[in-house]
Amino acid sequence: MAYNAPETKPASQDSQQGEMKDQVIYVGRVTKVVKGGKNFSFSALVVVGDGNGKVGFGLGKALEVPSAIKKGIESAKRNMISVPVSPNRSLPHPITGRFGSGSVLMKPAPEGTGIIAGAAVRAIMEAAGINNVLTKSLGSSNPHNVVRATFEGFKNLMDPYTVLTNRGLDQAEA
User: Looking at the domain assignment, is residue 169 inside a domain?
Assistant: First the structure.
């Protein structure tokens, strides 16, 4: 019986892995009825973020829950976006994200407010590093639609510094 040494990861991958926070939002069981009985499979909706403005979501499907979660995390890391975060760890301006029949209203909040949100939006805000925000989910309560609506809102957010430069102003004038 031979001893197998544990695999070692390069330092850069290990430190990057330590920074990323992942959170499972939803695990669904799917049943397919076939001639011989029922086949079960699982889908997992996962959010991954670095806590500093980069966040992504992914959907993984597999025959077992841990495999589905792992696939979801890999998908989320491939689909990360950058979110502008104001100095008080809030959003720069109010925004409404819409996807399908779901929409999510997101408003900046003063320091100390915390995250006022439902479960799916809360997980996204925590992963993105946004600590002070008011949100309201309108329409569909399906976690998939809520997550996608939140990300549509994030994509439409404007960074305050970019707006100033587009208007031809510098920070001192504003």
Answer: no
Q: Are residues 93 and 157 in the same domain?
A: yes
User: For residue 112, is it left (φ>0), alpha (ψ between -120 and 50) or beta?
Assistant: left
Provide the pairing of β-strand 80-82 with 95-99: unpaired
- Domain boundary among the residues 34, 65, 81 is at 81
Q: What is the pTM of this model?
A: 0.82
Q: Is residue 168 part of a domain?
A: no
* Residue 24 β-bridge partners: 46
Given 60, 81, 102, the domain boundary residue is 81
Q: What is the pLDDT along the chain (174 residues), one digit of tens a residue?
A: 344 433 434 444 444 445 889 999 999 999 999 999 999 999 999 999 999 999 999 999 999 999 999 999 999 999 999 999 988 899 999 999 999 999 999 999 999 999 999 999 999 999 999 999 999 999 999 999 999 999 999 999 988 788 778 888 877 665
